[in-house]
Amino acid sequence: MDLQKIKTLLDFVGRSRVSELTVSDADTTVVIRNPAREAAAKVDIPTSDGRELSTVKPVSLDDQPPTQLVRASTSGIVHHSNSPGAAPIVVVGDQVEVGQALCIVEAMKVFTTVSAPFAGVVKRIFFDDGQEVAFGDPLVEIG
């Protein structure tokens, strides 16, 4: 299992309601636990004798709203707007269409517009203006 796949899985568990994820690939098994979600998933059940039993409520992937990540296609400096001081191209809550610009990545004085590969609402923006990003880093979450 390659490092990028593990990073993607870590990102998924970190932003979802999943408390534990086990993935096997060839001869490698990765178990990712989110302690904050494990605690939130516990449910106290009162018994007839006044004691409380703690159990874990299973969380289904079907409970998650469908979202997709737009990732950096190149390493460079990411920009929110078309020019310094201008309004951001998109902000959280914006409805975007396929092909709509999301941000700009600058690499060696070449500016590449990152466009939405699918339509939806901008749920998260993972970068600050002027931040350096690497190939494959998440930029925007669209749901």
Automatic annotation (TrEMBL):
PROSITE patterns: BIOTIN (PS00188), BIOTINYL_LIPOYL (PS50968)
Pathway the protein takes part in: Lipid metabolism; fatty acid biosynthesis
Record protein name field: Biotin carboxyl carrier protein of acetyl-CoA carboxylase
Biological role: This protein is a component of the acetyl coenzyme A carboxylase complex; first, biotin carboxylase catalyzes the carboxylation of the carrier protein and then the transcarboxylase transfers the carboxyl group to form malonyl-CoA.
InterPro entries: AcCoA_biotinCC, Biotin_BS, Biotin_Carboxyl_Carrier/Decarb, Biotin_lipoyl, Single_hybrid_motif
The keyword Lipid metabolism is annotated on this UniProt entry: yes
GO cellular component, one term: acetyl-CoA carboxylase complex
Biological process (GO), any one: fatty acid biosynthetic process
MF terms in GO: acetyl-CoA carboxylase activity
Alphabetized PANTHER family for the sequence: OXALOACETATE DECARBOXYLASE ALPHA CHAIN
